[in-house]
Structure formats: structure tokens, C-alpha cells
Amino acid sequence: MKVLVLGGGGREHALAWALRRSAAVSEVYCAPGNAGIEGAATCLPLSPNKPAEILRFLNEKEIGLTVIGPEAPLVDGLADALRAGGRLVFGPNAAAARLEGSKILAKEFMRAHGLPTADFRVFVNAGDALSFVRSAEWKDTFRVVKADGLAAGKGVVVAQDRAEVLAAVESMMVDRAHGAAGERILIEELLTGEELSVMALTDGKTLLPLLPTQDHKRVFDNDQGPNTGGMGAYGPVPQVGADLWRSIEKEVFDRFLAGIAAEALDYRGVIYFGLMLTPDGPRVLEFNVRFGDPETQVILPMGKGDWLPLFLATAEGNLAGKKFKAHPGAAVTVVLASGGYPGKFEKGKVISGLDDVENDNVTVFHAGTARDARGRVVTAGGRVLTVTARGADLTAARQATYAAVGKIKFDGAHFRTDIGARALAALAKS
């Protein structure tokens, strides 16, 4: 079978890498891809904003499955257009994708279908939002400000006090820091605890959970600095015991499936539950309607066996009875970012050391890379590379990942040194 992966980041590199390893896959294409994806797929200059061109390519090459990586094309209805053209697609339709495309809609979905989440308020103009924050009704717990629309993972501010909440509202709604995405906002209750990423395949009838992981959103060690798209992840998560998992199944998975059934959403793809493990139980922070990045770079290498049958069953609506099996041990992924990220950064920095790190247990997934006129791999984004290693346990995986990270160089490179440290501390106490 021939497959097409749409996107050009670390998540898409991992998807192409996993599908390329299937004995049933004869060819992998990726659009637009990047300098690293070239090693796993034939990269194409196709734009996800032009569904007619993509559909023509799918028909010409007789592509058996299209996997849509990023959220924006899903929200824009690419899966709908390709399915209308008779093609098999892994990814929810536009109506279902609004669970990520609109944070307000997602919270209203959670409230309507009983998924546990933080209390929130919705605002459609800056005056009302600022008045609320300045009023006696505002409480110190209402310190999370979210742009409603897609903002590349940067539309959330966790404020320390009222002044920072006011500044965030001004930035989003008055200064339009995130453009149209911030025309409507949420101000919600701050939850405390540890975050957990749980992704699951679903065909709308069956939900198949994958390996739980923990992402690290803040740019600096010890969860300092601004939020990013993710600076590293690990899995499995030792803090997730049997009782907690049963609670997540009952209060999150079951209610989510009931909700999409009640609203007749055509959901055939992956659902990402961003959870906070609070003292009162798990709470849903957000939905993503695609694989998370960098969690995907942990989950796919940890998957035991062929990923293609699971993707096909999801797209065809035949997921019932399918199983996910993980390799023993653990995996850790660390993001190497450009200097200045998540703020302004320069591109075109030559990357060295890539040929010295990969082996059976270590894989480098390219997120923001390109080739210069001399054919050298150079930086082309904020998050440049994700380095993933598997090991017999979390300690071994972490050591292997950081050993590989230390061999890769480019001007301005920075990364967190504490990915997985919280889990090791938890294991030491157990």
C-alpha cells in the first residue's frame, strides 16, 4: 500500500518513520516534509490548503491511506474534502476538529457531556473581560487565559496574579497578539497537579488508548519560562496507577465517546486528552484532534508491531477488537530548539553530529530543518530536532537520549536537561 503523510514537523517525521517500517507499505510520501523526512518518505511540494491538488495526487498515485498530521488542515475541512473524493483518511472531519479549533466549543462540550474540567468564563469583547478581572467576582484561581482559536500552542497564559491576567487579556483581545484566534477568549480556573498526555485512536465507536506520556511545555528546566509547543516527553508515566487509569476511563474516555455519539461527530483519527492530575482526580485541560508533538516521538517508537493496521482500522471505522501493545521499558524524547525560541529566532544554522547518534534504540526526528544550497542540514524552525531513545527503564532511556543530544550541535541550540526527572523522583519515593 502507498500512504501519504501531510505535514512537515517532528510528529510527521515520526508518522512517516513508523509507516515506512510496515511490511505492507510499499511507498511513503510526505507533503511538504523536511530534511529528515527525506530519509523515510518521498517529499512533495503539496500544500494542505489545496485539497483539489492533493486529491489529484492521491488518485494519480493510487494512495491507499492519507494521514493528516497538523490540526489546521483538519479544522479547515481537508479530511472532509478527501473523503468526499472517495479517499481513505486518518483524521476527524471539520466539525469534530473544532474540539481543538475552538477552546470555547471544547469546554462547552466537556460541560455538556460531564467531562471533569476547570471552571471557566467566556468573553467576546475586551471590555467585559477586563471588567470581570477587575471585579469582586474574579477570584485568584481564575488565572488561565486562553485564546479561543488555533495559536500554534502559544495561545495560553498561566498568570501569577491579577495584573498578569489583565495584561494577557490586553495582549490577546486589544493588541491581537494571536490575530483572529484571540477575538474570543476563556478565563478559567488554574488547576494544580501534574499534567498527563493521553492519546487514543478512535473511530467514533471504539476508543483505543495508547501509551500515557508526560510532556514538558515550559521552555526552561523546572517548568520555568513561557509555554512552548513542547520541549520533551517520556512514557510510560509511573504516576499512573490502576485506580487512576480506571477513573480516566470512566470519567474521560466513556463520556467523550458518548459526547461525540450524541453530537453525531465523524471522528476517525486520534484524540489527545491533555489532563491535569489534581488532588480531586483527573481534569481535562484541552483536546487536540491530532497526535501531540513531541509525545508522538515517544509513542510510535514504543509501539510493538505494525502501526498500519491500526491506522487503517481507525480510518475504516473498524477499530473494535484491536489492541495496542508497547515494548517493555521506556522512551524519552528531548527537543533541541533554536536560540530565542519560543520568541524570535534565526534560521539557517548548520547542524552537525546527526550521523553520529542514530542506532537501534536512538532515533532523531526532524521538526524544523531544511537543506541549504550546499546540501547541508540547517535549522528552519523554532523546534529543530527531537531525539528519542528507548531503554530497559526510564533511567536507561534518559541516559541514552541525553548522550545523543550531547553529540548534536548548532549555533544557539538549547534544550531542557530535566525531561523525565519528575518521574524518576516519583519512582524513588515508591
Structural features, described:
- α5 packs across α6 and α6 (103-113) packs across α9 (242-262).
- With 430 residues, the protein is an alpha+beta fold.
- The mean pLDDT is 96.
- The protein starts with a strand and ends with a helix.
- It contains 13 helices and 22 strands.
Q: Percentage of helical residues?
A: 25-40%
Structural class assignment: alpha+beta
Number-wise, the strands total 22
Question: Approximately how much beta-strand content do the residues carry?
Answer: 15-25%
Low-confidence stretches: none
Question: Main β-sheet, in a few words?
Answer: 5 strands, parallel
Compact summary:
With 430 residues, this protein is of the alpha+beta class. Helices cover 31% and strands 25% of the residues.
Name a few traits of the molecule.
430 residues, alpha+beta, five-stranded parallel beta sheet, 31% helix, globular
Topology:
Layout: E1 2-7, H1 10-20, E2 27-32, E3 42-43, H2 51-61, E4 65-68, H3 71-75, H4 78-84, E5 89-90, H5 94-101, H6 103-113, E6 120-123, H7 126-134, E7 144-147, E8 156-158, H8 162-174, E9 185-188, E10 194-202, E11 207-209, E12 214-215, E13 218-220, E14 224-227, E15 232-235, H9 242-262, E16 269-278, E17 281-288, H10 296-302, H11 308-316, E18 330-337, E19 362-366, E20 369-371, E21 377-379, E22 383-391, H12 394-405, H13 421-429
Parallel strand pairs: 1-2, 1-4, 2-3, 4-5
Antiparallel strand pairs: 6-9, 7-8, 7-9, 10-11, 10-16, 12-15, 13-14, 15-18, 16-17, 18-22, 19-22, 20-21
